[in-house]
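tool_call predict_complex ligand=protoporphyrin IX containing FE
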Amino acid sequence: MVVERRDKNNKVITEDEEEEERRGFDDENEIWWFSESIDKTATDVLTYYMTLDTTKYKHLKPRNDKFISDIILGFLIAGRDTTSSAPTWFFWLLSKNPEAMTKIRQEINKKMTKFNPADLDKLVYLHGAVCETLRLYPPVPFNHKSPAKPDVLPKFQIVISTYALGRMRSVRGDDAEDFKPERWISASGRLRHEPSYKFLAFNAGPRTCLGQKLTFLQMKTMAVEVIRNYDFKVVEGHKTETVPSVLLRMQHGLKVSVTRV
Ligand code: HEM
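tool_result ok
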């Protein structure tokens, strides 16, 4: 996918991410947009960890069954409730913003007449809508950090509210509370690149979420199939409240009535 970002001097730079991936571009501190053509060298997670080159990673123990089962369990936990929380808020936000829903449907009908995963990266507006959902309702609403060993303060934890950060006017402007997929699209119609320290839904730095690309793949695939075929309305009187917990769930779920388009 071709995206636009700005350098330190605010100059627009256009990047072809597929080309960068081919060259082994390591974009540790920035969001990795889903941009895949199928990678023929790809392997499954289990095989990947079992065949790791241990000389490179001294803390990884791929020959140890517990290590492998912990890794796989981690993936299952990290990738399950997060990707079920996000669609709930996504469809709720679309029901509140029907014009965004119409734009997504138009984009799908124009750019993806037949489903092809390789074409998902053409759906820029839909991508922006997913980002807006994760900004306003991050499935992991806060993150905490603590030092590995005592530092200036003897023992402390820093809690970062990803939920609050996504809504701060000083960061996002006066329309911070509004759902605007356009926010993620540049004047030339491409995706705007954003530092992951600003868009913190997937965390940032070395412990960033390993499932980012998969999340966009899942969310966009599901959205294409649902929005292309169905219209939905939130049932009148249904209350939507957030449950304050490790995961940002919707109290009572989302009740909708569905009709075929
Ligand atoms: C909307 C979807 C998702 C969101 C918002 C999300 C968010 C996050 C966040 C905030 C972290 C950092 C947690 C921490 O620092 O304690 C994380 C870590 C992780 N995520 Fe996700 N995640 C999502 C989906 C997925 C999926 C689909 C997978 C894989 C199937 C996945 C795999 C992981 C793994 C393995 C880690 C641990 C990385 C590490 O510590 O090295 N995530 N995720």
